[in-house]
Every structure is written in C-alpha cells, then in structure tokens.
C-alpha cells in the first residue's frame, strides 16, 4: 500500500540515500555531483514550496518537490523534481508521484508545469513525461555534460494544467 | 565616452531607479512588480556571479549580470540579464553590454549563454538577441502574464559561444 504525504525534515535521512545515488551519478540532474547532505537538504527540502515522500510500510520509495518556476508574471507555472529509489524502479512510483503533483499543482493554483532541464539521454524520463501529457517545447544544444556521453542536449518540457 | 566596469555595492543606488522602472512595469522581467530595493539588490547584485554597469561621465546608463544557469553537468552555460535606463534607449547600450558580457562569459570559461525567459511581446529584445546570434530554441505557451496583453508566450534563447 503506497502512500504519498508531505515530507518532514527528519525524512531527509531516508531521502538522502536516494538523492545521493542519483546526484552523484551525474547523469540526470543538474546538481553538482559532490552535493553533500546539507546542500541536498537545502535544495530538496528548503528551497521548494513543498516536498512529498511516497512510502510503503514506512519505507520511503521516492520523493518529489514542487515550486514556483518564475516570479512575477511567470508565477502561474510550477516546476517539480522527482526521485525514485533504485530498488523501487519499474513499479510506477514516478507516475504515481506525478499524478499526485498534478493535483497539488492545481490545488495551489498553478496553471501549468514546466521541466526546465530534462537530459535528452534520460529516455525513460522523456518517455514518461510525454505519456503524462508534456510537450517538448525546447531543446538546449549541448547544455548538459554527461559523464559517459559528453555534451548532450537538454529538453524543456511543458504541460498546461488548466482547462 | 561609455565605459563598462564591475558594479560596486554603492552603485545600486543609481541602478535601482532603472531596475524599479522596468520591474514595476511588469512587462519584460519575471520579477514581482512590487520588488523592493533590498530584494532588488539581492536579485541583481548578490545572487549573480558578477554585475557590471555601463556609465558615461559618471552617470549609469545600464547594468547587466552574469551567472551560471544550471549547476553540475549544466554549469558550462551562463545566463545574463540586462537593463537600460529609459533615457538611454536607442543608443546601442544593450548591444554594447552584450558584447562585453560575451567576452566576460568566455573569460569565465562558459561555452554557451542562455536566456530562460524572453517575453515574446518584447519584440525589441527578441530582435536584438537574434541579431546577436541567439537561436530561439524553445517557446513556453502562455508562461507570462503581461499586464496589458494577458497570458503570452515566453521564449528560450541560446547562443553557443565556443568555437
């Protein structure tokens, strides 16, 4: 039985191994690979507007944040980031978090969701977000330095949420 | 005789009227229209990596900042923002600042420059950046709430700087 709930500060102890595995690999997120736990807490728990965890029997399988993507005249568009534990991949955990985040975004009054930097070689992410209704509205040539593939493109993906 | 130099903290007293006029109009920058002077200082002077002013006989005609657009695998792409005093428009001040910023960007080791959010109705900006060699690599539908035109698109513009 999977449950999604707001993250508490103490949850970061269990989020950190997931965050660290993904970020230190340097293949999908534009965070420094040597981001430490305090910096990770800042990025994942403090800067966003809200952070959630998805858990099963008290074990955290993944986490996501939601924040406002631009201020002022751009503040009706939100941005989210999602991470899933490597042990929990292939179970639809990211899809479940996305569905939840889309409802939260609407509840918070956002009209659209934008992903600023989807690494083009992260094919499972591109496929998932496309299935979730996102359009690829931009492509940044050679904007990401992939540890194995060198300079690769990053995509901007966008979904209008309002009717 | 126009000169571009690094901004000092005290310069913000003279930058602020330019910043305030542009930001309070709410037509071109995704900053809150009621951004106050302290918040403006933070956005323009503190958060960026470097901030410059362009002056003539001790009078500041404009200012720009440069910063890293993404961390980690994205940290070879910079972002800049430019503001020109309404009294100094039409004199090529923005072009001069851009030429300067492009050299600074290369000196700092950046390989590309990205503008994340060019409001599509800001035609003079779109024209200028296109003339300066930027490609429009993305379009965010209805991502900006313009005070006169309602929801309008924002553009992502990108220029590769390295050879």
Automatic annotation (TrEMBL), chains A, B:
CDD domains: NAT_SF (cd04301). GO terms for molecular function: acyltransferase activity. It comes from Undibacterium danionis. Signal peptide: none annotated. The keyword Nucleus does not apply. Keywords: Acyltransferase, Transferase. This is GNAT family N-acetyltransferase. The lineage of its organism: Bacteria, Pseudomonadati, Pseudomonadota, Betaproteobacteria, Burkholderiales. It comes from the Bacteria. Residues 2-162 form the N-acetyltransferase domain.
